[in-house]
Design a protein that fits this description.
Blueprint (H helix, E strand, L loop, with lengths): L1 E2 L3 E2 L16 E2 L1 H10 L5 E2 L10 H7 L4 H5 L1
Parallel strand pairs: 1-4, 2-3
């Protein structure tokens, strides 16, 4: 289990741009593939970057690409 310090989303911009020093995101498919490649089976999202791209982006990260999630 790892702590994933980023939002998993493909959204192009954050509603917090210009108001936070650090705004983190990762590409959902690439991040999931990288975690699987190093045998990480679970990631915690409870941190201060979970909603860096807004609450809707949080839902993006909770719905990983089906083909990668099941492989």
């Amino acid at each position: 289990i790892v702590n994933l310090e980023a939002t998993l989303t493909e959204r192009p911009s954050s509603p917090f741009a210009g108001t936070k020093d650090w705004i983190l995101k990762g590409d959902p498919a690439k991040t999931l593939a990288a975690l699987k490649a190093v045998n990480i089976g679970a990631a915690a999202l409870g941190n201060n970057h979970t909603v860096d791209y807004g609450r809707d982006a949080l839902d993006d990260g909770r719905r990983p690409p089906v083909d990668l999630a099941r492989s």
